[in-house]
Design brief:
The protein is mainly alpha-helical. Helices cover 81% and strands 0% of the residues.
Length: 167
């Protein structure tokens, strides 16, 4: 019973962290989509991109019957797009960031460069964190691969046969 509670607790933590970070990333993306769409369309696109990235990662990890090149391409495209959208949201909402600039010694740089660096650092990380949590969850819940004893003996027999013929 205790092991089951620990197992469910770990799954709950991964899921809740993923949803928290993915929700923040999705809300940030709405500001970007508002540049070319409005209202419900912006929200639909943000939700779709978030779900698409998670589905792509799941397909890469657990599905053997998918075209891995296509799925990896979509995954990288969606993640890069989310990183850009989050960075844009951070850029347009940055205020009072001189403490950060001083901390990392960027006082000599142009203000626009300072703002760009902080936007990328604070915005681009969110999709990577969300996908890291969902990847960790899928690794945790993936069943352990069992080794068939018959296959092991067959492989050992092959090695012995090849070694004997090589001598």
């Amino acid at each position: 019973m205790k092991d089951k509670l620990v197992h469910l607790g770990i799954i709950s933590i991964f899921v809740s962290l993923y949803f928290l970070v993915a929700t923040i990333s999705m809300i940030n993306s709405v500001a970007f989509f508002d540049l070319s769409h409005s209202g419900l369309m912006s929200w639909s696109l943000a939700i779709g991109f978030e779900l698409g990235a998670a589905a792509s990662l799941a397909a890469i990890i657990i599905l053997d019957k998918t075209n891995k090149t296509m799925v990896w391409g979509l995954f990288l495209l969606l993640t890069a797009f989310q990183m850009m959208a989050n960075s844009y949201h951070a850029f347009v909402n940055l205020e009072d960031y001189m403490g950060w600039i001083e901390l990392f010694g960027l006082e000599e740089e142009e203000p626009i460069f300072q703002k760009r660096i902080l936007s990328v650092v604070s915005g681009a990380v969110l999709p990577l964190v969300a996908l890291g949590f969902i990847k960790s969850l899928t690794d945790y819940i993936r069943p352990e691969e069992t080794v068939n004893e018959e296959e092991v003996f067959t492989e050992l027999d092959r090695k012995e046969t090849s070694e004997n013929t090589a001598e």
